[in-house]
Amino acid sequence: MKKSIIELPKSLEKFRGEIEKTIKPYIKIKLQEQKTMPWESKLGGNPYLEIGIEYPKTSKGEYLRLLAQVNFEETPHLDPFPSKGILQFFILANDVYGLDFDDPCIQDTFRVIYIPDVVKNQENLIKDFSFLGELEDDWYMPFSEEGKMNFSLEYMPVSWSDYRFDNMYNNISLTEEEIDDYIEKLDADGCKIGAYPTFTQGDPREDENIRTFDTLLLQLDCEKECGLMFGDSGVGNFFINEEDLKKLDFTKILYNWDCC
């Protein structure tokens, strides 16, 4: 990678070599408030759902709601993510956005679904989602408006809040000022696919039992566009094991969100 790939504050320039070793590419997501087609990448709105396919529900029969949908034909290619197909993220619309804090890996009140083959023909798709009914409360979903996703390929070093930060920089010692500069200038904020996450409270993968979830599948951070926010200035993340991602096996997912 070229050394000019990222800009560093002067205080961190002496650590450029170590910092650049941690750089990873990611897909940056920019939201644009608008109605979308069924097969487009989006926040909220109606999902791509072929006629005859059952809509996702909880074990109690409660309908989940579409949080986000990514069509990989619209994104820059990023290994080991697929180059085609749609990945959908559903959550239960409740006051915790479908997260089971006791076991955030159980796909009951949330679901991640991969559709490998996409046909852009509305005649083959369900168009009437009135069966979902009205939300009990508007704030039960972490956004206020539907939005289309636009993408670009970017690069970033390991984020301060990633549990691997200290291990990756175990050969250098940062002062408080340098740490402040790192947090301010090399943050991991924003909506994205891949690379390193950010958190409001802390990385749940500090727990060794869930460190197998090593790949950031999707991050949704606070955005004025579409009124996106988890709780009070919070961020939502979905993680997967890299080998499962390569196999397009989305049955084991870690879902997390935290806020101030």
TrEMBL record:
Do you know which Pfam families this protein is assigned to? DUF1963
Q: Which domain of life is it from?
A: Bacteria
Q: Which InterPro entries match?
A: DUF1963, YwqG-like_sf
PANTHER family this protein is in? SLL5081 PROTEIN (PTHR36436:SF6)
Q: What is this protein called?
A: DUF1963 domain-containing protein
Record the organism.
Answer: Clostridium tagluense
Show the taxonomic lineage: Bacteria, Bacillati, Bacillota, Clostridia, Eubacteriales
